[in-house]
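Box 3.1 A note on notation
Throughout this textbook, protein chains are presented in two layers. The first layer is the amino acid sequence; the second is a C-alpha cell string describing backbone geometry. Keep the layers aligned when reading.
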Amino acid sequence: MSATTKLLESLGTRGYTHAVVAFLDDQGYPLSVATGFTVNAESGAVFLDPVAGQTVEPPLGREVNVVFSHIRPQPGVGYDERRYVSLWGILRRADGKLELLTERIQHWDEQEMTFFEFSERGVPQAHRYMERVSRELGRPVRPKLSAGWLFLRATRLPFLSATFIPVALGVAVAALHHEWHWWLAILTLIAAACVHLGLNVGNDVFDTLSGADEANVTPTQFSGGSRVILYGLLTMRQMVLLMLGFYAAAIGIGLFLAAYTAFWPVFWIGVAGVFISVFYTAPPFRFVHRGIGELMVALGFGPIMTMGAYYVQAQRWSWEAFYVSLPVAILIALVLYVNEVPDRPGDAAAGKRTLPVRLSKEAVIAAYVGAVAVAFGLIAGGAIAGVIVRPAILALLAAPLATQVYRGLRDHYESPYQLMPFMGKGVQLHLATGMLLLVGYLIAIVASHLSGHPPVFLR
C-alpha cells in the first residue's frame, strides 16, 4: 500500500467528520464551505457531498483546496490529537457527487511530528513567502519582535546564572578571608557577563555560518540557539556587531581591572576566558565541533571565572577558590552536555561532533551519572576535609535534581520536547548547587564576623 493510499484511507478512520472546500469565486474572492465526504482509497478518489443551499458552489475544472482537520480540546490545558490533511486538485461531477482529482497533498500529525518541529521545517517556506510579498510591495517585509524581547532572545540573557555563580563564589571565598571590594566585584561580574553574552551571540553567528542552525529542526527552549538570524529577526551584520560590542566591553573592563591589580595575572586569565569564548564555535579551533566543548565550558565557567574573581579581590591565588569552582564547572558542562542531546541529528549533519553525537545513549547517560557523582563527591569531601567551608555541604540538598535529569535522559532521549523539562532541571541543578554553596560561604562569613573563632562546623 502506497503512502498516498494509506493517507487517503486514514480520512475515514482518524476522526475527520467533514471536509472544508476552499476556492476562489469568479471575482477572485476566497470562499470556503464544509461538506460530507467518502473515500475510495484504492482508486485514490475523494467524493464530496453536494453543497446544498449555497449561492456559490465549488467550481468544476479549476483547482480547489480540500482540508480535513481534527483536534481534541483538553479543558484547562489546551489541545492534543492535532492533525490535518490538505489536498489540492480539480473537481468534477461523478454520480451526483463531486469527485476530487488529487494533484498535491500536504499533511501533518503531531503523533508523527511535534508542532515545534513542524514549525521549524516551515521556516524556508516562510522566507520564500516574505520574499514574494517584498517583491510585490516593493519594500522589504521581515518578521518583527519588540526590542526588549528581541534582545532577550538574541543574547539568551536568562542563562547568565552560569556566570553569576562562579564569579560570586570567587568573591565569597575572598570575602571569607577579609578581602572584599564591592565595586570590583560588580565590575568583574559585568565583564564576565559580557564575555558570556558575546559567546551566546557568537554561537548563533558561527552556527548559522556552519549550517548547524539550519540543519537543526528540533530546537528547544534550552538548545538550538536563539535562531534570530535564521528567522530573519536580525541580520548577520547586526549580530556580528552585537557580539563585537559585548567583547569590546568585556576587554575594556578587563584591562582596567588588570591595570588596577597586578596586571599580568588578570590579563592572562582574561585572555584565556575570551579565547575559549570566541573559539568555542569559531574557526579554526571550533572546540565544540571537536568534542571538547564541554571541557572548554567547564574551564571557562569554572576555574577561570572563579579564580579571576578571587584574584581581582585578593590579588593572589587560592587553592580553595580553585577547588570550589570544580563542582560548578562540572555541572555547567553537564547543562551543555544534556542540552546537546536533542541537537544530535542537526549537529551531526553540520559536522559538529559533540559528545552526544559521538557516544551511544547508554554511554551518554553513564557519563552523566559519573560526572554528577564526581561533582557532589567533591563537595562532600571538600566540606568534610575543610578544603572549603563546612556549611557548603548544604549543596548536597540539590542532588535529587540530578535524579530527575537522569530519568529524563533514560525515558525521553529520542523525544526533544518531552526531554525539555528535564533539561530545565539540569539548569536548576547547577543554579541550586551554586546558590547553596554561596549560602554555605555566607554562613561561614557571618560566623567569622560574629566570632573570631566560630565552631568548626561553621568554618
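The chain has 16 helices and seven strands. The radius of gyration is 29 Å.
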